[in-house]
Amino acid sequence: MESQNLADFPRPVHHRIPNFKGSYLACQGIKDLDIFARTQEVKVDPDKPLEGVRLLALQSQKTLLVPTPRLRTGLFNKITPPPGASKDVLRKCATSQGVRNHSVPVGLDSRVLVDLVVVGSVAVSEKGWRIGKGEGYADLEYAMMVSMGAVSQGTPVVTIVHDCQVVDIPEALLEDHDLTVDYILTPTRVITTGCARPKPAGIIWSKISCEMMGRIPILRSLRSREKQAGKDVTLQDEHQHLPEPHSQHTAPPGTVRRPRDPPPQESGPVQAGDVPSNTVYVGNLPRDTRVSELKRALRGRGAAPLRLTWQGLQHRAFLHYQDPAAAQQAVSCLQGLHLGANTLSVALARQQTASDLVGSCAREPHPDHCPTI
């Protein structure tokens, strides 16, 4: 597309859903589909070549839902133009800037029922096989919509591409989590794929990594719901075994304290129940470890805490999370973590024995608090 000058702003089109010359014309083809006329709620990806469809949805007074970028803050944003918006204002609402300035988040309990899904593609075949830019967000968004009851197998999926993006794709490349499409719109054609391959039936947790769970908060909420419903929610790289008991070579954990809390009194033993249930113990840190190295390792596993209490002299740290569920998730994600030649000991701080929790306060009354990761 770049070499033939078929690409349009933003350029270059590498590593993104490519915009192309004629994308607005291709978007107009959706008006010829009966499914669009019957649609009330439309989910359209935020990619630039789909801007024309977002505008048509707003002009037709349909409910327009756009996924939040990289799903950082949720699943959908609902575009809400100001009352009496002119065509120019609607046009701005259909852009990425409009998504930021004229939208409200849609929560898991909003009972959204999506009538039509419009996704971007890098390549697509006439049989309905689709290739995105390789990060899996469109596939995951669809699976999440299935999990929250927003779509069904009968919900049509449309993609909009340049004619040169319609290519033969071997079915062997497809996996069970890949989203297929029912209609392909190009500047010159409207293709009905007749694809009979089932679409994803929900989130396949065994293909979700701990790192992805850390990046996408809404996944954690959906996982909690499905776990309560009795579904297998084992992650791709999650170990099911509980942490091994600490060996005699592992320094016992000290008393966990929040920033600005007064040092614990040394007059009595610390009880296991006194330790906040949202706190994770990390032990067996190498002698020369820096706090920045631990932070980097935690981010790499998608387990960055709200706060970190550093006790490097005692070869340990305490990680403070938003709630007990997040702490438990971090324990799962951090199993087997190495720093240097050491395998770190990771467990909920509350799981340590009462004797272990007798404050190392006398040895280290003022641990370094690192509020941010």
From TrEMBL:
<dbReference type="InterPro" id="IPR037171">
    <property type="entry name" value="NagB/RpiA_transferase-like"/>
</dbReference>
<dbReference type="Pfam" id="PF01812">
    <property type="entry name" value="5-FTHF_cyc-lig"/>
</dbReference>
<dbReference type="InterPro" id="IPR035979">
    <property type="entry name" value="RBD_domain_sf"/>
</dbReference>
<dbReference type="InterPro" id="IPR012677">
    <property type="entry name" value="Nucleotide-bd_a/b_plait_sf"/>
</dbReference>
<feature type="region of interest" description="Disordered">
    <location>
        <begin position="227"/>
        <end position="283"/>
    </location>
</feature>
<protein>
    <recommendedName>
        <fullName>Methenyltetrahydrofolate synthase domain-containing protein</fullName>
    </recommendedName>
</protein>
<feature type="domain" description="RRM">
    <location>
        <begin position="278"/>
        <end position="351"/>
    </location>
</feature>
<dbReference type="GO" id="GO:0003723">
    <property type="term" value="F:RNA binding"/>
</dbReference>
<keyword id="KW-0694">RNA-binding</keyword>
<dbReference type="InterPro" id="IPR002698">
    <property type="entry name" value="FTHF_cligase"/>
</dbReference>
<dbReference type="GO" id="GO:0005737">
    <property type="term" value="C:cytoplasm"/>
</dbReference>
<feature type="compositionally biased region" description="Basic and acidic residues">
    <location>
        <begin position="227"/>
        <end position="247"/>
    </location>
</feature>
<dbReference type="Pfam" id="PF00076">
    <property type="entry name" value="RRM_1"/>
</dbReference>
<dbReference type="InterPro" id="IPR024185">
    <property type="entry name" value="FTHF_cligase-like_sf"/>
</dbReference>
<dbReference type="InterPro" id="IPR034359">
    <property type="entry name" value="MTHFSD_RRM"/>
</dbReference>
<dbReference type="InterPro" id="IPR000504">
    <property type="entry name" value="RRM_dom"/>
</dbReference>
